Amino acid sequence: MTARGDDAAPVGDDAAPVAAAAGREGILRQRARDLAQARETASADTVPLLPFEVGGERYAVEVIRVHQVLDARFVDPLLGAPRGVVGAIMARSRPVPVFDLRHLLGLEGGGLVDLVRVILVDDEGDLFGFAVESVSPTIEVPATELRPAQAGPFRWMAPGPIAVLDPARLGVGGGEGG
Amino acid sequence: MSDVFEQVWPIFEAETREQAQAIAAGVIDLERPGASDRAGPLLRVAHTMKGSAASVGALDIERAAHAIEDVLALAEDGRGLPPHAVEAVLRAAAAIEGSLCGDARGRIPDLERVVGELEDGGASGGGAGPGGRAPTAAGAPGPADLDALSEDVAALSTSDPAARAARAGRARAAAERLAAGLRGHAAELASRLARSAAELEAGGADVAKAIARAAADLVELRGALAPAPAHEPAEPHRDGGGARRADERSIRVDAARVDAIAADVDQLVVGVSRRERRGRDLQRVEQALREAARLLQRGLAEAGVKEDGLPRSLADGLDRLRSIGADFGRHARELRRESDRERVFAHGLRDALLDLRMVPAQTVLGPLRATVRELAAKLGKEVTLHLSGGEVRLDRRVLEELKAPLMHLVRNALDHGIEAAAARRSAGKPAAATLEIRVEPHKDHVVFTVRDDGAGLAPERLRVAAVQRGIVSAAEAARLTDQEAAQLAFQPGVSTAAEITALSGRGVGLDVVAEAARRLGGAVSVAFEHGRGTAFTLEAPLAIAGSTGFLFRAGGGLGILPADAVERVLLVSPSAIGTVAGQATVEVDGAPVPFSSMAQALGTTGGLTGAGATVALLVASGGRRVALAVDEVLGEQAIVVSSLGRRLASARHIAGAAALDDGRVVAVLQPAHLLGVGRLRQAEKEAPRVRIVVADDSLTTRTTAKSILEIAGFEVLPAADGEEALALARDPGCELVVADIQMPRLDGLALTRRLKGDPRLARVPVVLVTSLDSAEDRAAGLKAGADAYVVKRDVQRGKLLELVRQLLPA
After folding, report:
1. Residues linked to residue B718 through DSSP beta bridges, in sequence order
2. Distance between terminal CA atoms of chain B?
């Protein structure tokens, strides 16, 4: 970009506000671009993950997909719900279904006895929760160490190994049989 | 002009106006090379405009939009549009906007010129000329010229002198053209602007001043044109009067915002009824206090204490108790009065909002027109579409929900219902098929009918599919009339199609249609006439609103049914339960009504409790009734039914969930489904049948084994060879396989190995049957994994039955 300060600087009488505004806007725009880029590079380096345990196994979900983590005691059972649905919980002032992740993953166990936390995730506006046994503090995993998952409702394999869930693939299709 | 057109016009007008403005605003960017990414969204806008114009029959706009599309497509390669193409698009956009005003009603008077210009713009191909301006037909200046000019003037404030000069050149040319088309003061202003622009184009010394001057001239020019546009009479559609006024009267609001407000209003309505209940609670407290005071008084009297001989503190306490009771009563009455008043307002507000959300059905019928045209062409079928009832207004949310099901019914009709032209001719029917989509209001419901004059359904195929899927037993299927069997098409996995087609797939869809209708509290049905056609009817409420829920406890949990689905509460004594055709019934108004427990109907644990009278809800939907026993009735509550999202959309029983006053979340059940499920469950209860696959290539042996097992109460699926048996065993519900060793295609030993090798089927016991009792056969059978072995002659002697009973889990 050529630095032609004289054009952008206020010159003359009635032109002043127009040109000044244009200059200020230019600066602001550039700043916004720089800021945006800075954030992008930061997020490209590491991916924040929320690890949790269910069925004795450790999994994780990307923090960006998590809407809220709630206490499983607030889950109310739903009469007539299909298997794998532990109930519903109020979030964003509306009821949101809560699934038993063990059922979705084909693991043993049922009931709400040892599920103490509900992780609410947002799948393109479709809010739902899954109940887990425990939630650990967020970890940052370098993006380079994430390998695409080969099977199941997972997005990545993180070192550990920890399978990183893909909420978009959880509980859709094949849930309800005849 | 038809009524439908009248109804849809305001929506079409608003939408098209926005689209035309979006195109005008966006096309200017396309002149610059390298803006190919901006072309895509604009193309879509033009395409949508074309489609909606076609659906309302605004043919001029359709043609113009089509020509615009052609021009915009040139920009996709990133070379930039030539200026005259951009201008042609701008003029076309303006002409389209103009055609929406006043009495034009979508007619573009100079359509040929507009389209001609667009075609010229497109014909010269992509790649902007070197700033040159192709000579265009010397039309009168339109509002687009002024807008283009503003755009150019605004872009003059750039630090790049070359770009500024180019912009200035365009601004000058635009201003000159305006000046030529205008008269008087406006023409003068335009010329002045052209001079300022020329100065900038030449790269004069005082750039900033010249830009400011140009901007000021532009403002003045706009002002001069605004009140009484001094256009040539050739531009009749810029009068704007009527449209302006209409614009001012109506606003376009994002539907999601209306929904959000509506949700809040629903909460408000719930809040009001909650307060009403609080009022009643207070009244009860008042009564309790009075009662307490009375008891105290009576106690004192019984103890022989006279009223005037009371200790002072006791007398005061009694007085205070009475006055607090009276206070409570007063507050309770006030609360009731207030909540009564609030209820009137809240309900009024809700109704008004509901009315805002009512849109004509045409908004979904219109797009179907294009679908039908497209599909018919793809399938090589000739179809005449008749749409009626587009003016019926219904809740936008209902329409949204019905969009996909309707589309599915239309696809189904075109793909499976309507025959190919040759088949139609040989059946003596006109080659062109008729598809009719009708919308009719019926009290607070609306009925959509999709009728084709195709071949009709094949009920026998539906019966077979339903039996294979385990939806009904063979005996039940045989008992169904053809019209009853047709309803099986709405069951999951059952298809009306003979073969899989890319379009509608197989067996996926009509069950989804049924689910959508149920979710809305509606119903779906089908009727057909062999060789004459099929008619699907989809019934849905006109509006979804906050509703009253009937709260009960069943199977250890809380549930809600829409209050209007609960006809009444029955007290059923054990002696009142009878059976009709093996099904438990209770008598209601002299007629037997199917009776079951709610928990059973929902498939949860907990059946009918044995002793004592049972409380049952008489649930009615779509003309059918069922009595469902519950543990406890907890009364009615105003509720807001919320969807539980995509992941529970296919849950059979659950329509959504609602939060109670105390914050608990309770499932809202689907009454229609309870009726259907209730019947099926009872049929199962009547005969808890285990399914057995019997495979034998000999019809005699097969039939013998089949009848022996059927008499013993098992359900038998016969197979003629191993392959068939394997397929049947893979269907859910098969609990045992009886197989002959010698069979074509896949013999008994191979079948056994395949079954035992499949993790899902390994637990299914296999009984091998053979004609000879040979040691080798027996060893081979056991090696393959068979669980038992029986010689054919022993089958009739009860040996088979004995083995089967041993092998099946208790």
Report:
1. B694
2. 73
Does A99 sit within 8 Å of B159, measured CB to CB? no
**Across the beta sheet with A117-123, what order do the strands follow?**
A66-71, A117-123, A126-132, A94-100, A85-91
Q: What is the mean pLDDT of residues B393-404?
A: 83
Helices first, then strands: H and E counts in chain A: 3, 12
A133 with A54: CB under 8 angstroms? yes
Distance from CA of B651 to the nearest CA of A (A): 6
What is the tens place of the pLDDT at every residue in B241-299?
A: 444 444 456 777 777 777 778 777 877 877 787 788 788 888 888 888 888 888 888 88
Cβ–Cβ below 8 Å for B208 and A11: yes
**In contact, B552 and B632? CB cutoff 8 Å:** yes
Give yes or no for a cis peptide into B236 (omega within 30° of 0). Answer: no
CB A60 within 8 A of CB A154: no
Name the minimum distance, in Å, from the CA of B517 to any CA of chain A: 18
Environment class of residue B516 by beta-carbon count within 10 Å: exposed (0-12), middle (13-18) or buried (19+)?
buried
Spell out the residues 6+ positions from residue B544 whose beta carbon is closer than 8 angstroms to its own: B395, B397, B398, B520, B641
In whole angstroms, give the CA distance from residue B781 to residue B788: 8
Residue with structure tokens 């949508």? B48
Q: Least CB-CB distance to B663: which of A79, A90, A127?
A: A90
Q: Is the pLDDT of residue B20 over 80?
A: yes
Please indicate whether, in this complex, the C-beta atoms of B215 and A12 are within 8 angstroms of each other. Answer: no
- Burial class (CB within 10 angstroms; exposed 0-12, middle 13-18, buried 19+) of A30: exposed
Q: Residue B647: which of A1, A18, A171 has the nearest Cβ? A: A171
> What's this model's pTM, rounded to 2 decimal places?
0.40
Residue pair B128/B81 in contact by the 8 Å Cβ criterion: yes
8 A C-beta contact, residue A46 and residue A96: no
The token pair at B735 is: 């609990």
What's the DSSP call for residue A151? Answer: S
Question: Is the pLDDT higher at B17 or at B795?
Answer: B17
| Rounded-to-integer distance, Cα B91 and Cα B87, Å | 6
pLDDT band at A37 (very low <50, low <70, confident <90, very high): low
Q: Which pLDDT tens digit goes with each residue over B301-339?
A: 888 887 777 888 888 888 888 898 888 888 888 888 888
Collect all residues of chain A within an 8 Å Cβ-Cβ radius of residue B652.
80, 82, 176
Q: Does B209 reach chain A within 8 Å, measured CB to CB?
A: yes
A&B contacts, CB < 8 Å = 124
Q: How far is B802 from chain A (nearest CA, A)?
A: 31
Q: Give DSSP secondary structure letters for B713-729.
A: T-EEEEESSHHHHHHHH
Q: Which of B518, B517, B524, B440 is nearest to B486 (CA)?
A: B524
